[in-house]
Specification:
The protein is mainly alpha-helical. Helices cover about 60% and strands about 0% of the residues. About 0% of the residues are buried.
Length: about 80
């Protein structure tokens, strides 16, 4: 039987896995519910990993970098106040 999952989703998952992506089944995702399309906690961890030096650079006299670091810290605190 041909379904969208069999024809398209499985093909795309296979192609992404071959390129190094990790597939996580829906029921294993760490999120509050299905209505949360963006995995905020995963996004924050990825931003922290990619921008390891962001806060160090925020100490330089660049107002753009300082502003970005401040907005990031505020967003993280408002989404995860107990982290």
């Amino acid at each position: 039987m041909f379904t969208e999952k069999a024809l398209i989703e499985n093909y795309i998952v296979k192609q992404l896995q071959e390129r190094g992506w990790e597939f996580v089944p829906t029921d294993e995702l760490k999120r509050e519910g299905y209505k949360e399309p963006l995995l905020i906690q995963n996004l924050i961890r990825a931003i922290e990993r990619i921008n390891k030096d962001l806060f160090r650079l925020a100490m330089t006299p660049s107002p753009v970098i300082a502003s970005a670091a401040s907005r990031y810290a505020h967003a993280k605190q408002s989404h995860f106040p107990h982290e």
